[in-house]
Design a protein that fits this description.
six-stranded mixed beta sheet; 9 helices; alpha/beta; Rossmann fold
Length: about 240
């Protein structure tokens, strides 16, 4: 079975005992699928995504990546498979320079210096940020930070991309470049977004979350053209 699939099985989670944010979420992505995850603020999208790399642990249910069930023992292995782009780019950028941020993951993979350099250059070039490599992340604009955050993930060579609002803070040109980049990514991608136009262009399948549950799951055109569904789910 392909290691590029991801399964959320009967996921329940609450930040407090009396506030369940996820209420029995079942979702599976097959190899090569690009799936948009949409919903109003508070629907549970970000909370679900954080389960994919073990930053949150379900109170009930399980997450499976390929044939590996996520646990404390397997989380490091799964994080080598999944590239996660956080909603806030500052959560991923902490080194003195852009190139050091992008090199951080490959360095921890104990790659050769030549391979690390190749990954840094190719990942920054892929997001149009090669000219930023000597800059401090703190000196970058919001859109530039977003590009670099994506480059840090691409440098790891992930089999699955999980992205939380990747087009946020991007100007129109950077947004178009991001969409082109993601179109070329041939593996599995789960993209939480409020950018419904991007979802329509990029993802053949869309999943709608509402109040911590899956409200709809189907072809993007059908989902986004269902006005009653969109209104009911605050979209």
């Amino acid at each position: 079975m392909s290691h590029h699939f991801i399964l959320f099985e009967e996921i329940h989670y609450g930040y407090t005992a009396d506030n369940e944010v996820l209420r029995g979420v079942n979702l599976q992505l097959e190899h090569g699928e690009k799936v948009a995850l949409v919903g109003a603020n508070g629907a549970g999208k970000s909370t679900l995504l954080l389960h994919s790399i073990g930053l949150l642990t379900p109170t009930r249910g399980r997450v499976v990546v390929g044939d590996i069930t996520l646990s404390k023992r397997t989380v490091a292995q799964i994080r080598q498979t999944i590239g996660f782009v956080f909603q806030n780019a500052d959560d991923q950028l902490f080194m003195p320079t852009v190139e050091e941020d992008v090199a951080f993951g490959p360095t921890n993979m104990q790659l050769s210096r030549e391979e690390i350099e190749e990954r840094v250059a190719s990942s920054l070039a892929a997001v149009g940020a090669l000219s930023l490599r000597k800059r401090s992340p703190q000196q970058l604009s919001g859109g530039e930070k977003r590009r670099v955050a994506i480059a840090t993930v691409l440098a790891m060579g992930p089999s699955i991309l999980v992205m939380d609002e990747p087009s946020a803070a991007l100007d129109p040109r950077a947004r178009r470049e991001l969409i082109a980049l993601l179109k070329d990514f041939r593996h599995t991608a789960l993209i939480a977004t409020h950018d419904l136009a991007m979802a329509r262009e990029l993802c053949p399948r869309t999943v709608v979350m509402h109040a911590g549950q899956i409200a709809a799951d189907g072809p993007t055109e059908a989902i986004l053209n269902d006005r009653a569904l969109m209104d009911r789910c605050g979209l």
